[in-house]
Structure formats: structure tokens, C-alpha cells
Amino acid sequence: MVFGTAAVLVIAGGVCAAVVGGVTGEVLTIVLISGGLTGGLLLMFLDIGLGEEHDLAREQARRRKRELRALDLSSRRRLPRRPRRPG
Q1: Residue 32 near residue 13 (C-beta atoms within 8 A)
Q2: Most buried in the list 14, 40, 45, 62, measured by CB within 10 Å?
């Protein structure tokens, strides 16, 4: 939905270039198209960053789970064996 908003800004800038004349039209066109393209680029960077954050959190959870499992296994001690009876 947010990417759509950036696309709408670019389209609105193109419409302003065709409909509104003079300096006002040029300024609106530049502002709208620049804003839409900049917003789209920033959203792509945000999406990539959030993906990396999720990957990092998932890896930390796996590491934590592995460490807890290793700690649990090391804390379990085998019961001492009784010596065998001579036969």
C-alpha cells in the first residue's frame, strides 16, 4: 500500500506536467515526481533492513536455543554405576 502511494505521487507529477502550465506546473511536477521516487527508494531500503533484522533475530533465537540445549545436556549427570558383583 505504501509503495502504491509513492507510485501515485509519480503519476500525479506526470499529470501535473501535462495539465498545469507555467512555473507552477514545473515546480509541482519536480516536487511530486522527486517525492515519489525518493519515497519508493527509501521504502526499498526499509524493506531490506527489516528483512535483515528478522534474519538476525531468527539466528539469535536459534543460537539461544542451541546454548540452552547444550547447557541442559551438560547439567544432566549420569548416575554413578554400582560396581559389578564378582561372579
Answers
A1: yes
A2: 40
